[in-house]
């Protein structure tokens, strides 16, 4: 039996949906009953909670995923039908088609959903990938209320948009049918068809501008990021997205990462730099996705584009960059040593995992979380030498450790001043999966630049150059016996420690871990720790959870001491 999605299910027929059945739900096996018994079932939430509570839960499920609940039981099927019929505004508030076959989500079907919502639509999401048919362009013309066909002509679908399509009424009539129903739209995820509409930006009408002004979240593909940034900078007197708070650029996973980018335009015009805040309220800026392995090529990102965008975001709170190689390869020969985020004075989280750049970007002293998991970068403290910025890592780590925390501006060479507060607000540091540059000396040098009372979480899993057993020499002095000795001295308030996937983590190290009096979570997965070392952990005063899968310990002493054993798998590219 074929069960088609129908937004008018339980209500009056809709003229748009009579044209094409849109989405086919999964079919159950003919060997089992399609529905379960409607008698009382403890696993049926409809029998356990009041309808008011169920309604609040269902409000968080988007449409059409909501329709899959009809397959649970007859009571659920009846509940969903009643909800569609009697509460369509809540049912169609969040339209998320990102996990559905894009070829089957026709423009007519989308219009019918918008009309059923009656102006309550807050989210419309499609796959952020390269469209393969005219559906994508027609849908976006409806959402953006863009009636100028030039953008569609560019992709040779003029015969579709100017006349009546085989799927139903022409796009112009569909655009007009929802012209007053998208005023509450806040979340928009769109595909590469957006690039064609950006070329006709000067034809955007007042309704389109109102839709842009109402957006809180925008998700596009990395493939159209160059066109989008160029679009934002064309008119420095206009702010297209004044209320946008979340801006994400994702990969088209159907393409090779190297093909996720087009050629970059020249962003070097001075008017586009620091004088224009094109995204004044963006707080979260996310680029790329976590790659599957190190063998996957990075997606190139023009460094000048990155420097430009972060200048446009004075309220930036979270920056995340995954699977990206920041390079300066434009024909305009733009090349700087590193990106500078110090103008983003509200930045709290800097996540550059699974990515690479020419040099470690400079971060503001307000940053609280520094995450460089499987990254090609290593944190380095800036120094000013003869008026030029350099990295302490280029000068020798021994000089850093000898300086300690003796003052706000530390001079260790003639005409050299080190910025001491660059990592002064860090509470989370994650350098798991770092390359051979992350040694014991470098790690301790980084911790020396942090405020010891603020560091709460440290992660350096799979760092083969960090030794937990041998002594290391810095600045001509023998410091603590090993890295954990340094951590005890520099991070006495540490609450979370992840040192898994390091073969030199042995039982004797656990004696030092116990001295971290505030520690409540420890990750020693895939290490050589045995039950002998676990016995030491049982004496930790506040330890609550331990991840030790893949180690040689059974964990029984921990369970006897009331400490939970958990599985914690962090994506680290090996």
Question: How would you describe this protein?
Answer:
- The chain is of the alpha/beta class and 574 residues long.
- It folds into four domains: 1-215, no CATH class; 221-358, no CATH class; 368-454 and 469-492, no CATH class; 495-574, Ribonuclease Inhibitor (Leucine-rich repeat, LRR (right-handed beta-alpha superhelix)), CATH 3.80.10.
- It is built from 19 helices and 24 strands.
- The strands form four sheets. A 15-stranded parallel sheet has the order 1-2-3-4-5-6-8-10-12-17-18-21-22-23-24, with no helix packed on it. It has a four-stranded antiparallel sheet with strand order 14-13-16-15, with no helix packed on it.
- β1, α5 and β2 form a beta-alpha-beta unit.
- The chain is globular.
- It starts with 44 loop residues before the first helix and ends in a 9-residue tail after the last strand.
Helices and strands in order, then pairings?
Blueprint: H1 45-48, H2 51-58, H3 74-86, H4 88-91, E1 94-96, H5 107-117, E2 123-125, H6 134-144, H7 150-153, H8 158-161, H9 171-177, E3 187-189, H10 194-198, H11 206-214, E4 217-221, H12 225-234, E5 246-250, E6 284-288, E7 299-302, H13 303-311, E8 318-322, E9 324-327, E10 349-351, E11 356-357, E12 369-371, E13 382-385, E14 388-391, H14 397-403, E15 409-410, E16 416-419, E17 428-430, H15 440-448, E18 457-459, E19 473-474, E20 477-478, H16 483-490, E21 496-498, H17 509-513, E22 521-523, H18 531-537, E23 545-547, H19 556-560, E24 564-565
Parallel strand pairs: 1-2, 2-3, 3-4, 4-5, 5-6, 6-8, 7-9, 8-10, 9-11, 10-12, 12-17, 17-18, 18-21, 21-22, 22-23, 23-24
Antiparallel strand pairs: 13-14, 13-16, 15-16, 19-20
